[in-house]
Specification:
The structure is a homodimer. In chain A, a hairpin with a 3-residue loop joins strand 2 and strand 3 (about 70-75). Helix content of chain A is about 70%, strand content about 5%. By secondary structure, chain A is mainly α. The first copy, chain A, has 9 helices and 3 strands. In chain A, helix 4 (about 80-100) packs antiparallel against helix 9 (about 195-215) and helix 5 (about 105-125) runs antiparallel to helix 8. A 3-stranded antiparallel β-sheet of chain A has the order 1-3-2. The structure holds a DNA duplex (30 and 30 nucleotides).
Amino acid sequence: MAKKNHDRSTDIAGTIAEKISELVALGVYPPGLQLQQVELAEKFSVSRVPVREALKRLAAEGIVEHDLNRGFFVAQLSSDEARQLYRIRHLVEGEVLASIEWPSPTQLAALEKETDRLEALMKSGKHAQWAIAHRELMRKIFELSSQKVLVREALRLLSLTDRYRSLAPPPQRDARNVASEQHVLKALAARDRARLLRVFDEDRTRIEEQLIGSLVARGM
Amino acid sequence: MAKKNHDRSTDIAGTIAEKISELVALGVYPPGLQLQQVELAEKFSVSRVPVREALKRLAAEGIVEHDLNRGFFVAQLSSDEARQLYRIRHLVEGEVLASIEWPSPTQLAALEKETDRLEALMKSGKHAQWAIAHRELMRKIFELSSQKVLVREALRLLSLTDRYRSLAPPPQRDARNVASEQHVLKALAARDRARLLRVFDEDRTRIEEQLIGSLVARGM
DNA sequence: GTAGGCATTATTGCATACATACCAGGATGG
DNA sequence: CCATCCTGGTATGTATGCAATAATGCCTAC
């Protein structure tokens, strides 16, 4: 619903933060890379101030790290940290899923449409767009819960682990992930909470294992 | 004018963020209050830029909220949100405590010293200083774990619920809280993990109930 | 040839200045 | 009398400029 000019009209810092977050998640900005303010400012055609604010926010979220008088760097990833993040995700997402309200037929239809779009993007090999759309879908599913604090935390944690996905080998993850999203939809349609939880846990654990494997293989 | 000590003293935005965070936790800045940039800038004798950056960071952490083109406000508190935060704290702190390494005699002595200091502050009625020192103690205990991501999340969540403490009636909380900290120390000394977990859970739950009571009584 | 020190350069951190959006209150017209 | 529009004031959002700090490369001495 297009409403008031709230969204993008002036919140440059916010949009830039999301852009950078996406680029990090996509692996365009790999871990350890220094994010220089002037460079980003020119890239987005703004001054350094909103860029700094965006970087500060991302630093608070843990996506980038800040060395005083040295700059901002994409946060390094260790397999150990990944395990911790997935552990918390398991716990928090469990709470979120336990509290979601079943979607109305209209909502369900919208979610199915999204899922189909995901599948199409995957089949056509548009991994970048797929990743973005995937995050959106997750957000919509979580937001079926009215427990806003829980949802907010779950989304933060998701963005922290999403960074890793670009490291996982695409061929393997694809087919099964699409399948898992279809399973989620079915669980939602059937209003089967136990199944929903199980699908999420299995999916998350599978991704985690692939990821940890990749990290360990790279000595991270 | 304070001279520039090198190292961290030049991180104005960071120090200001912590200052504001403390003031919010102490209840000096109550929920809903608008935090005006010029006012804060004058209060800390700096320009608006580091103030804005501090506020952005606090917004990312959830301590303040940001209305576009309207300003920053201390985050409102509802009993419902409090419950969600305590639920997550329960889960995350459980993980942290499960992963801490038992303190060395030296570390233990330092913790005992801190606890005694807390008790002294409480008895002399210096609630503000007590609250700050309490947070420090919690941080030191959490940091007995090497799982940095978990610790970081736990501390964030702690800062989010600490805001509420100033709403709870001081007389009740005091005596028992000091006692609970002594219990924590004993569990650490005895290296009794189950007991440690239990003490933390009981303490947290007790505070939560007091708090929820206060919030409900005020219609929040 | 290498290690160390000094000057240069580049980048961050903060302050100042300007542009823009929001809100309250009153004038105006129905 | 009420609704609408305008307008002044205030606070936020962004751009630019300057000072301080860390990185870099060169030069010199051994």
